[in-house]
């Protein structure tokens, strides 16, 4: 059985026992039967004393069981330093406020080595095992929790909200730099200027990549009040902005200059300064798109069309940049990205190679230049980084991981708090699990895909793929288990990206499905990431239709979805539990399409109830699992209504395709 199926089975077994009535703990006893429904641990602040330990910090772990249910508990951890398992006996420390649960603790000693741990829980002759993948009756062989000493992900990512901008389509702040129709040709096609609000498809058989609307960095700067104040987002992620002949600019011509259609290096510098300012909204951060797997064929290093006065690799085998690329038969057969001849792959060669030094190794490298003064960007989003390698292979090999580790060292040497965000559409654990490469990744696998399938009944490509709430919960659980907690908390959770159909398109234009998705996005584990226009339900099919120009008649908080986004971001900012607190599943109801979960820390307990049905439902949320006491009050942060915990539950009416955020 593969790992994902093991995880799904474990979670399903746990869920079948999760609906026990309040007061079940009173029936728990030493009866040679471990009550699975009472077991809980994650690496939230109440259960892990040091989620990001240094090599000199011991880690005290807390485990929850039903009161009086077990006779002993142990931590079993694997230490990569000696390749062996070690045991730590746990001891009882306290009960929770409701009297339903016991807390047990044990401490893993400090060291610099990476460790993986699971729990053994015993009630007389009965044993259960618990790790990040769930609860099992036999010892698991995978899915353990992580301890990665010395691995720190940026706190501003854990606590922030990203707004992703495709520059040509956001706002035209400087019409003097607009690309005009017929201004230049590239690959035998001419540029086309399209009026704002027009179609992103080329007319008369031209290239979609050469359709320009006029959006630029000055436009982003002029609309910062919308991003930072109207919405409250504080991290601006820009799709590529460096010189390139296309509108998407994933075919870089010059890594050291902003494309003239977007402005100048000085324009970027001003934008960064204004994003960083706290006088125009929250202090912000800037992430740039680093396309380091390949260049464009118009790069000076390659120069397929003789645009430069120097000789590029395509023009001469004696070019100083010839070794930057891998030719099977010079000049027309060479390694490229997905076979696109316009995107020749860079050859990273051996340690200390010219390409490595050019991209990240030297003080004047691309990576370090933009992280350093006078620009001071706050992070890099890495495009297609799994393909980076030597010799024109397909990446994901030893060289790829070596390069990623070197790149991390280079980035952190300039700014230890900078973010490294990798693009990967599957399980990104190979690059994030050891703390030596990326900080986090784009969460296609653990957010975008399952959210679309549960809410819309379609995958992110628009194919029919409906899943019930229980499978949605299992999917989320399994993908969280792939990562250390500090990686989970900085995964970029987006409904849409520039590479897939718009969420609202998959929702059939039902704005209520966008409402529901936004509520989940802003209360789930990870960094909420808004692809421009998703906040008002912009529609669009596959590329380039997912890159329509922003409709500024919708970009105001008089728009209900925009106003909801603003409210949700404010709620997220107010409650640290929604950012770095524990996550606990509370309820799945496949029949009524309901899902409930808790987020909590030492200061607040928040229960979220989601209704994915088209009609209103009454939801009974078992908040006693969050240790909410009978008679205590909770407030729905969306409606303002107040409820009282009774019988361990809170009962709330939730509109179709909407939610409640119940906080105390």
TrEMBL record:
Signal sequence, start to end: 1-27
Pfam families, per the entry: Alpha-amylase (PF00128), Alpha-amylase_N (PF02903), Cyc-maltodext_C (PF10438)
Keywords recorded for this protein, A-Z: Glycosidase, Hydrolase, Signal
InterPro entries per the UniProt record, alphabetical: Cyclo-malto-dextrinase_C, GH, GH13_cat_dom, Glyco_hydro_13_lg-like_dom, Glyco_hydro_b, Ig-like_fold, Ig_E-set
GO terms of molecular function: hydrolase activity
Highest taxon listed in the record's lineage: Bacteria
Limits of the Glycosyl hydrolase family 13 catalytic domain: 164-572
CDD domains named in the record: AmyAc_CMD, E_set_CDase_PDE_N
Protein's name according to its UniProt entry: Glycoside hydrolase family 13 protein
Organism: Dyella koreensis
Lineage: Bacteria, Pseudomonadati, Pseudomonadota, Gammaproteobacteria, Lysobacterales
């Amino acid at each position: 059985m593969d790992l994902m199926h093991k995880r799904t089975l474990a979670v399903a077994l746990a869920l079948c026992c999760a609906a026990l009535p309040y007061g079940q703990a009173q029936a728990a006893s030493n009866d040679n039967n471990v009550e699975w429904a009472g077991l809980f641990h994650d690496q939230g602040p109440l259960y892990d004393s040091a989620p990001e330990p240094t090599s000199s910090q011991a880690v005290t772990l807390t485990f929850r069981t039903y009161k009086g249910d077990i006779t002993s508990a142990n931590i079993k951890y694997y230490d990569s330093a000696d390749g062996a398992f070690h045991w730590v006996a746990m001891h009882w420390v306290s009960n929770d406020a409701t009297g339903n649960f016991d807390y047990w603790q044990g401490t893993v000693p400090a060291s610099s080595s990476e460790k993986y741990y699971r729990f053994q829980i015993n009630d007389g002759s009965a044993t259960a095992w618990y790790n990040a993948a769930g609860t099992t009756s036999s010892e698991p062989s995978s899915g353990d929790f992580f301890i990665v000493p010395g691995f720190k992900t940026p706190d501003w990512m854990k606590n922030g909200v990203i707004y992703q901008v495709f520059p040509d389509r956001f706002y035209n702040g400087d019409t003097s730099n607009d690309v005009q129709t017929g201004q230049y040709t590239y690959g035998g096609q001419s540029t086309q200027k399209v009026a704002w609000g027009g179609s992103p498809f080329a007319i008369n058989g031209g290239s979609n990549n050469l359709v320009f609307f006029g959006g630029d960095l000055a436009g982003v700067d002029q609309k910062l009040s919308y991003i930072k104040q109207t919405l409250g987002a504080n991290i601006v992620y820009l799709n590529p902005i460096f010189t390139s002949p296309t509108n998407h600019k994933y075919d870089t011509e010059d890594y050291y200059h902003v494309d003239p259609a977007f402005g100048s290096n000085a324009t970027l510098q001003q934008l960064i300064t204004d994003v960083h300012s706290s006088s125009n909204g929250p202090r912000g951060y800037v992430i740039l798109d680093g396309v380091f797997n390949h260049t464009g064929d118009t790069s000076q290093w390659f120069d397929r069309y003789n645009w430069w006065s120097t000789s590029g690799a395509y023009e001469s085998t004696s070019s100083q940049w010839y070794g930057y690329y891998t030719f099977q038969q010079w000049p027309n057969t060479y390694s490229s990205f997905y076979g696109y001849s316009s995107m020749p792959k860079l050859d990273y060669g051996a340690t200390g190679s010219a390409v490595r030094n050019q991209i990240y190794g030297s003080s004047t490298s691309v990576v370090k230049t933009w992280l350093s003064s006078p620009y001071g960007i706050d992070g890099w989003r890495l495009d297609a980084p799994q393909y980076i390698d030597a010799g024109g292979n397909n990446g994901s090999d030893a060289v790829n991981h070596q390069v990623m580790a070197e790149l991390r060292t280079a980035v952190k040497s300039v700014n230890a708090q900078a973010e490294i965000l990798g693009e990967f559409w599957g399980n990104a654990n190979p690059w994030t699990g050891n703390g030596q490469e990326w900080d986090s990744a784009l969460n296609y696998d653990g957010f975008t895909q399952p959210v679309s399938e549960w809410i819309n009944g379609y995958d992110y490509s628009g194919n029919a793929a409906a899943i019930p709430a229980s499978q949605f919960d299992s999917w989320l659980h399994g993908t969280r288990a792939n990562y250390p907690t500090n990686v989970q908390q900085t995964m970029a959770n987006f409904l849409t990206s520039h590479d897939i159909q718009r969420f609202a398109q998959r929702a059939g234009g039902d704005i209520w499905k966008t409402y529901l998705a936004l509520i989940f996005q802003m209360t789930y584990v990870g960094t909420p990431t808004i692809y421009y226009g998703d906040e008002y339900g912009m529609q669009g099919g596959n590329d380039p239709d997912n890159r329509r120009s922003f409709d500024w008649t919708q970009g105001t908080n008089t728009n209900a979805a925009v106003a909801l986004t603003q409210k949700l971001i404010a709620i997220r900012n107010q409650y640290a539990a929604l950012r770095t607190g524990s996550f606990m599943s509370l309820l799945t109801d496949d029949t009524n399409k309901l899902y409930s979960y808790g987020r909590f820390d030492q200061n607040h307990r928040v229960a979220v109830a989601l209704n994915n049905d088209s009609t209103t439902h009454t939801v009974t949320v078992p908040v006693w699992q969050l240790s909410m006491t009978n008679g205590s009050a909770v407030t729905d942060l969306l409606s303002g209504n107040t409820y009282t915990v009774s019988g361990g539950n809170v009962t709330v009416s939730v509109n179709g395709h909407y939610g409640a955020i119940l906080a105390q």
